[in-house]
UniProtKB/TrEMBL annotation:
Limits of the GST N-terminal domain: 2-79
InterPro entries registered for this protein in UniProt: Glutathione-S-Trfase_C-like (IPR010987), Glutathione-S-Trfase_C_sf (IPR036282), Glutathione_S-Trfase (IPR040079), Glutathione_S-Trfase_N (IPR004045), GST_C (IPR004046), GST_superfamily (IPR050213), Thioredoxin-like_sf (IPR036249)
Listed GO biological process terms: glutathione metabolic process
CDD domains found in the cross-reference section: GST_C_Sigma_like, GST_N_Sigma_like
PANTHER family: GLUTATHIONE S-TRANSFERASE
Keywords, comma-separated and alphabetical: Eye lens protein
Identification of the protein by name: S-crystallin SL11
Family, as annotated: Belongs to the GST superfamily.
Superkingdom of origin organism: Eukaryota
GO molecular function terms noted in the UniProt entry: glutathione transferase activity; structural constituent of eye lens
Organism listed in the record: Magallana gigas
Domain GST C-terminal per the UniProt entry, residue ranges: 81-205
Length: 205
């Protein structure tokens, strides 16, 4: 098995899906957490000047979605056939749209009008993307309750992670999307995910 080192800030942010993929796959890795104080000195020494980074036997990968897709392929979490693989990618792309809008709420503007627009943009992205994800999940003829196919995939893991911050502020945020809610519950009940969440360091975001 390769030696994995996953480097990201000491928080969930854009790195948490990677940690969760390792967790549900049961694959050991070094969870290297960088403080905000350490980052300026380290930034120029990284290939892209950004994180997360994934080191695989000394070879470094950059770009979060590249890393997550690579891990999904390595761990068999990318779908069982070509159509399922496309469906997994499709769901993940819609989640990226939601998370991009949601990140702006983590550090909201102080101007009331600007804040109003940020909130409206998030709600628009949420309604559009979650509606599309519900449609895609409706195409899954398997009765196992996963987003794609008959077993857990990266789509399920990222469906769970993508809404953690939003749900912590508004428990009803997914009430219009029953398939997503049910899938998240299924992921949360997975033994390896429960173990990971129980020992995960508590951070604001």
């Amino acid at each position: 098995m390769p030696k994995y080192v996953f480097t990201y800030f000491d928080g969930r942010g854009r790195g948490e899906p990677g940690r969760m993929l390792f967790a549900v796959a049961g694959v050991p890795f070094e969870d290297k957490r960088i403080s905000q104080e350490e980052w300026p000195a380290l930034k120029s020494k990284t290939p892209s000047g950004s994180m997360p980074l994934l080191e695989v036997d000394g070879q470094i990968l950059t770009q979060s979605m590249v890393i997550f897709r690579h891990l999904a392929r390595c761990f068999g979490l990318d779908g069982d056939n070509l159509l399922d693989k496309a469906r997994v990618d499709e769901i993940v792309e819609y989640l990226v749209e939601v998370k991009t809008a949601g990140f702006k709420l983590l550090f909201p503007p102080t101007d009331p009008e600007a804040l109003k627009k940020v909130k409206e943009d998030f709600q628009t992205a949420l309604e559009k993307s979650c509606g599309q994800i519900e449609r895609i999940m409706s195409c899954n003829k398997a009765s196992d309750g996963w987003a794609v196919g008959k077993k857990m995939s990266a789509a399920d893991v990222m469906l769970f992670e993508a809404f953690e911050s939003a749900l912590s502020k508004d428990a009803a945020v997914l009430d219009k999307f029953p398939k997503i809610k049910a899938c998240r519950q299924k992921v949360q009940e997975c033994k390896k995910m429960k173990e990971y969440l129980a020992k995960r360091k508590n951070t604001p975001f």
